[in-house]
Design brief:
This protein is an alpha+beta fold and 281 residues long. The chain folds into two domains: 149 residues, Fructose-1,6-Bisphosphatase, subunit A, domain 1 (Fructose-1,6-Bisphosphatase, Chain A, domain 1, 2-Layer Sandwich); 112 residues, D-Maltodextrin-Binding Protein, domain 2. The protein contains seven helices and 14 strands. Strands 3-4-5-6-7-8-9 form a seven-stranded mixed β-sheet, with helices on both faces. A three-stranded antiparallel β-sheet has the order 12-14-13. Helix 5 packs parallel to helix 6. Its EC number is 3.1.3.7. Keywords: Cell inner membrane, Cell membrane, Hydrolase, Magnesium, Membrane, Metal-binding. InterPro entries: CysQ, CysQ/Inositol_MonoPase, Inositol_monoP_metal-BS, Inositol_monophosphatase-like, Inositol_monophosphatase_CS. It is a peripheral membrane protein. Belongs to the inositol monophosphatase superfamily. CysQ family.
Amino acid sequence: MQIATNLMIDALLECVRAAGAAITTIYAAAAEGVNCELGDKADGAGPLTLADIAAHRILCEGLHQINGAISVVSEEDYNTHTLRREDGQFWLIDPLDGTKEFNARTGEFTVNVALVENGYPTIGVVYAPVLKELFWNVPGKGAFKDDGHQVRRIHTADVPTNAVLRVVASRSHLDEATRAFITNLGAHSLIQAGSSLKFCRVAEGSADIYPRFGPTCEWDVAAAQAILEAAGGHVCTMDGLRLRHAKTSIINQAFIACSAALRDSDTSSISARLRAQDYSA
């Protein structure tokens, strides 16, 4: 595992904050009528904006300064996607996660940076610059949140037996399979959020479970997965396996992100619900 020194983490957070500052400058310009769209992304994942490119450049430069020996794989540079190796180490970044939220001006978009080692994320940083929420983890030391007023360690919530589950789901991608799963959970409250903030809501204990059946890419998930796992949570595929990265395909399987308490106390009933209906559509 990459040794995460205090200096390395500090440099990583500074780099992500700089990318977020560039995004907010362009976000403000868009509010004044400046056209920030450059067309569609090469992978067809949605619109490409000036903010995507600005954040990509800042992150790549900053990460190379932190450790030039580690490759950077970015959503915004298709040529880097082949650098993903299951037995290797690489930075995996989404310079602007939640372009729909950026364009809809909800503020619920993030900068995502993960260090992936041997197929799994070990360090993650998620920054929502408009909301001024910064999440990260330090291997062996836990997960943290800076809300602009204080820095605190965060943990997933305990879930009492028969509790009304707090389900967080996509604001922009709530498909029928996800709706069916949520309905089958029984008593619940629904929280809608954009980008990788859904994982962070589970990590900080303000939500209990995040089911995702629609398509996601590895860079959408890796950073927040590292944070959630460090906060005591889990991100598992429908067969119960820890979600893996650096796969042959950059597209993830359907997954469930939840607190450890929910997984440990309710595994049998959730598994039964999964078996009761095919949610893979």
